[in-house]
Amino acid sequence: MTPAIILRSHGGPDQLKLEQVDLPDPGPGELRIRQSAIGVNFHDVYVRSGLYRTLALPGIPGIEASGIVEKTGSGVRDFRPGDRICYVTGSYGAYAAHRNLPENLALKLPDTIDDEIAAATILKGLTACMLLRREYAVGPGDHILVHAAAGGVGQLLCRWADHLGAVVIGTVGDPRKEAVARAAGAAHVFSSSDQELVGKVMDITKGEGVAVAYDSVGRDSFQSSLSALSYFGKLVNFGQSSGPVPPFEVSQLAARSNSLSRPIIFHHLRNPSALREMATEVFALIGEGILKADIGLRLPLAEAAEAHARLEGRRTVGSTILLP
């Protein structure tokens, strides 16, 4: 048996309940993991609320964590008890003290990265890699727009893009978060509710607009993101913390020959070699101090509901983790 958070019905944070669940021996190709830290993400909020119906109920939510291999199933060759690992999975199950994990999802942790940093960073770091290296190859001199620049992914985007030589324009939902975004590498920071945002972006870019807008906010920021683009600029919508984007006329993209994408990180990670290639890049940047995890909230596993309430209420800065 192991403690785990069970979701039996979609709804508010109070639907997350701590229970004891059976844990069988690891099967062929599986690892038994004693988890050290568990990442909490907006994806988890969407799953809990029912906006994403990708977890069969009752089920254990959570898609990223770090831990130590305790036992291996038959056929496992690359891991042994005592190995430190982290993982991201679209099959859920991370909100637990122990779990079994397919070997091909496990990433060995370098000695330079501790378990909490790994749990707080791996999904966000892989997401930043997807956005900056695969969705649009950010380079020196690019002006880019990053919404929610003080959030977990937002800070990593700012740090990485600044390292690549881009000029980062960030937005924040709370004036108190402006200093956080600037410290992460945003050259310009504005309120997400600023009615003059597009005009200010155009002033900064001398009327050109941004090469790419990274938008995890969704409904409230979509139109300003689109209006801030340069000719041939790209809007990358990768979240919807303010709600889903309503239907819009595709012809709006014709104003400046723009493009729009809605990437899903698990599609980029479906190839194990791509997963390891991206993780290697993320681990290297963490080791060099270029990417830093700002863990703003640590709570016990039993308080997963509180973690969701604070995240959903935009009362967090940086990353949130649960400790089993």
From TrEMBL:
<dbReference type="InterPro" id="IPR020843">
    <property type="entry name" value="ER"/>
</dbReference>
<dbReference type="InterPro" id="IPR013154">
    <property type="entry name" value="ADH-like_N"/>
</dbReference>
<dbReference type="InterPro" id="IPR036291">
    <property type="entry name" value="NAD(P)-bd_dom_sf"/>
</dbReference>
<protein>
    <submittedName>
        <fullName>NADPH2:quinone reductase</fullName>
    </submittedName>
</protein>
<dbReference type="InterPro" id="IPR011032">
    <property type="entry name" value="GroES-like_sf"/>
</dbReference>
<dbReference type="InterPro" id="IPR013149">
    <property type="entry name" value="ADH-like_C"/>
</dbReference>
<feature type="domain" description="Enoyl reductase (ER)">
    <location>
        <begin position="11"/>
        <end position="322"/>
    </location>
</feature>
<keyword id="KW-0521">NADP</keyword>
<dbReference type="Pfam" id="PF00107">
    <property type="entry name" value="ADH_zinc_N"/>
</dbReference>
<dbReference type="InterPro" id="IPR047618">
    <property type="entry name" value="QOR-like"/>
</dbReference>
<dbReference type="Pfam" id="PF08240">
    <property type="entry name" value="ADH_N"/>
</dbReference>
<keyword id="KW-0560">Oxidoreductase</keyword>
